[in-house]
Specification:
Length: 246
C-alpha cells in the first residue's frame, strides 16, 4: 500500500527505531488507524533547520519550559503527501489525523485525557533527571547526545553528569502517586482502556510513555508497568499498535 504520510522521528543507536514518547503518540495513532506511512529520521540538531526550510510554523512558546529550552521546532512532525501539508506537535497532529481519518475514533478531549495529561506533568520532573543520563549514553547517536547535553545543561542550569548521582529509588518513589493515578483512571470504566473496551488517545499517551521507558531499558519499563496492574493490562491490550516502530 502506497505511503500517505511521512513521519519525521528521532533516530536511535545502534539501529533506528522509535524511542521518543512524543513521536510514539503519533506513531500509535497511525498504527491504530492503519494509515500507511514511512519514517524519515532527523537528529536533534537537524530538526530546526529542516522545519524552517519547509516553512513549518514554530510551536507556541511553552510557559512551563525554561526560556532557553529548544521547543520551537520539535519531533514528531508529519508530511501529508496528498496535499503537501507539513505540521508538527503530537497533539496538533492527532487532531488533524482524526479530521482526515475519522474512523476508528481517537475520542479526543475526554476528561480522562485531561487527567492523563495532568499526571504526566506531575511525574516527569521526578523521573526525567533519573532517566536522561542513560538516554544520552545508551540510546542517542553521538550528534544528538551532544546536542541534548549542551541544550539541557544551558536551559536547566545543571550538569547532566550530576544527574547520574540521583538515587533512582527516590525518583521512582516521588513518581509513585502519578503512576497510581494512571491506574485509577484506567480502572474507572473497567479497563483495559480508559473508556473501557475501546482505545482512545488518552491510552496512547500512556502507552507512548511506556515505549519510551522500554527504549531506555527493560528494567525501566518493568518498573513503570509494574507500578500498577492496570498499566500492564493496558500495555498487553495495545501490543498490536507498537509493532511498527520504524
Amino acid at each position: 500500500m502506497a505511503s500517505e504520510i511521512t513521519l519525521f522521528d528521532l533516530p536511535s543507536k545502534p539501529t533506528n527505531k522509535c524511542w521518543s514518547g512524543n513521536a510514539w503518540k503519533t506513531r500509535l495513532v497511525l498504527n491504530y488507524k492503519s494509515i500507511p506511512y514511512t519514517t524519515e529520521w532527523l537528529e536533534f540538531p537537524d530538526i530546526a533547520p529542516h522545519h524552517k526550510a519547509l516553512s513549518i510554523p514554530p510551536n507556541p512558546e511553552n510557559p512551563n519550559l525554561p526560556k532557553d529550552f529548544p521547543s520551537a521546532y520539535t519531533i514528531p512532525a508529519v508530511h501529508f503527501l496528498k496535499d503537501g501539508t507539513y505540521m508538527q506537535d503530537s497533539g496538533a497532529i492527532a487532531r488533524e489525523l482524526e479530521k482526515r481519518y475519522p474512523s476508528p475514533s481517537l475520542h479526543l478531549d475526554t476528561p480522562q485525557q485531561a487527567a492523563i495529561e495532568a499526571l504526566w506533568s506531575k511525574m516527569i520532573p521526578s523521573l526525567f533527571p533519573a532517566i536522561t543520563p542513560k538516554l544520552v549514553v545508551d540510546l542517542l547517536p553521538e550528534r544528538s547526545a551532544a546536542y541534548v547535553v549542551e541544550t539541557r545543561e544551558r536551559a536547566l542550569n545543571v550538569k547532566i553528569s550530576d544527574w547520574e548521582k540521583i538515587d533512582a529509588n527516590t525518583a521512582w518513589a516521588e513518581a509513585a502517586p502519578a503512576l497510581t493515578g494512571f491506574g485509577d483512571v484506567l480502572r474507572e470504566k473497567g479497563g483495559p482502556f480508559v473508556l473501557g473496551a475501546e482505545p482512545s488517545y488518552a491510552d496512547f499517551m500512556v502507552v507512548a510513555g511506556m515505549q519510551f521507558m522500554k527504549a531506555v531499558s527493560e528494567g525501566t519499563f518493568e518498573r513503570f508497568v509494574g507500578a500498577d496492574e492496570a498499566l500492564g493490562r493496558l500495555y498487553e491490550a495495545s501490543k498490536q499498535w507498537v509493532e511498527k516502530d520504524t
